[in-house]
Amino acid sequence: MKLYKLIAMAVVTLFLTTTGLALAAGTLETVQERGSLKAGVNGGVYGFSMPNDKGVWEGLDVDTARAVAAAVLGDAGKVKFTALTAVQRLPALQSGEIDVLCRNTTQTLTRETKNGLNFVQVNFYDGQGFLIPKDLGVDSAMQLDGATVCVLPGTTTEMNAADFFKANNMSWKPVVIENTSELNKAFFAGRCDVLTSDASQLAAQRAVAPNPSDYKVLPEIISKEPLAPVVRHGDDQWYDIVNWTVMGLINAEELGINSENVDEKLKSNDPKIKRFLGVTPGMGQALGLDDEFMYRAIKQVGNYGEIFERNVGPETDLGLDRGLNALWTEGGLMYASPFR
Amino acid sequence: MFQIFIFLLVGLLAYYLVSNMLFNMEKQHIASGWGFMQKESSFEIGESLIPYSSSNSYGRALLVGALNTLLVALIGNVITLVLGTVIGIARISTNWLVSKLAGIYIEVMQDIPVLLQLFFWYAIFYEIFPSPRQALSPIKGVFLCNRGAIFAVPAAHQAWGYMLIALAVASLLVFFLKRWAKKRQDQTGRRFPVFSASLLLILGLPFVVWLVNGSPTEMSVPELRGFNFQGGMAVSPEFAALLLGLVLYTSAFVAEVVRAGIQSVKKGQTEAAMSIGLRPNLVLTLVILPQAMRVIIPPLISQMLNLTKNSSLAVAIGYPDFVSVANTTINQTGQAVEGVALIMAVYLIFSLSTSLFMNWYNKKVALVEL
Q: pTM for the complete prediction?
């Protein structure tokens, strides 16, 4: 009898040891073995990541994750999305609960060092602003002394707001609620005077407000918020794959390759396009993937421009201009390194 | 022999888990250690019992959170005890309507998850009350709006501090008075009007101090300036919703505990007490309650602990309790292991001290075998 117990114990210990080893394996192998990509997203920001009325995930961050799945697994549909709050997102990635975090997360020094994370190519350049009801008669963020401000906890926004009010010698009272939709509900019911967040998020929240025209975004942008997908420290191959997939989406737009003409472009004589789509082999193999990885990503998801227009562009409810997010050739900041 | 082996195995497993964690943290270059406690927090906290700003340290921010948790747990537990006892007694009232109403209350409150109740009360507060500029003012000096309840409080004056000391002295006197009265009754059989004497002491002594200090009457009245009210004292909707939700939920369980405790005292006890000529309220206070207490206290402890632990749901409605502050700290410093260890330690300390106190009290009222 006792012997059985001993054996059971030994098996449990062995099991724990092997799972420990499995964790230590590379993210690429883990993802390919599992057959799906686990992506952390916001879940509450229209245009970036939110399920639509049919329950299908939509948004710029969602499409970024889909492009990675198409590159790695060959199927953009093989993504398991996990909605994470701002507070949960970094520990979820650190602990290996997700493979990649595409959740409008700002790249900062401490997140890359102390949190043990790596940010890849930026997929949205943003800045922090203030959303306020028009009837308060405020025209500038400098008039916000004494205001009650709704803000998400665990964000750079929370710290920027503290800096902004301190630098301008103004007092304020934060109301911090972890859940994005609960926070917005409280703001639109008047619990706070101001909602502060990244300008793109404010536009998104305003778009789904009960009466959007009663609210306006103040002119001041008080911070730089380069939003980028994030991976864990310590797996350089996986970092390269995610990084170059996002770079690829931007490069494709620059090369004029989109989801509709990509098959046609396979016959192109341009060496840059041939390398990019894997007609000339080498690029994909260098990453540990096959050479068609960008072909699939573009075919199934589209280039950066298409993703932008589809989710947040002028034709959508958000109606954002390309602005900083235009290609460098058109006066924006989207500048991806070459496939060579 | 077998036990030693199991002990070693568990030790080995713990060692494996800890070393695995350290190895992985090292591999990902995640920061560790307690150095972050002295660093500047750079985030604001909505309400605080001690002075705090974003230039204070993480340590102080966490202290603010712990005090906020303590505040809601302390006030919540006291109100829950009173409300729960009242409803528990109402539940076994001979009045049909009172008993049924208490029954409905208990069933409804017990069956709705406490998180939902919190969302409900919070939504009520911010949806129903108007903005500060249209604040309701039911009584002069009291304002109700979606920023909370703001009311006038006496302006700062030295007298208030002294009155607090007087109150403490009065409580101490009441304690000794009770002991003396009991001794006298045991010896001579004469009863002393303890209740009215205590009331006189507790109200009278601070009042005398107030008079001696020049009877200050100046009030700090809240005033609408800019976005919000200045002056007076404010109870935020987050705090009010959390307190209300926890109290209403837990008191339903306390009511059941109290009812069961009272019903556990045999009917013969009441009849015996009546037959020696005790009045009904004396039957309750001298015969029934002391015996019921022995049954009530142990489950009551766990209900009080439940309320304390449930207060961590504050995160959902934005009350800056310990968990909420610790979560933000974890997020900013990236030190989840230290942060979670702190959360566990703080709740362990709260829970252990509550149960130590209640166990001490339980021992005091427990049946003494002669």
A: 0.81
